[in-house]
Amino acid sequence: MVLGSFHLPPNRALGAKFAIALTRWLKEGKIKGEWICKSNHVAVVPGGLNGVVPGLRQLAGGVSATKLVVRPPETIDV
Question: What average pLDDT does the chain have?
Answer without folding.
Answer: 86
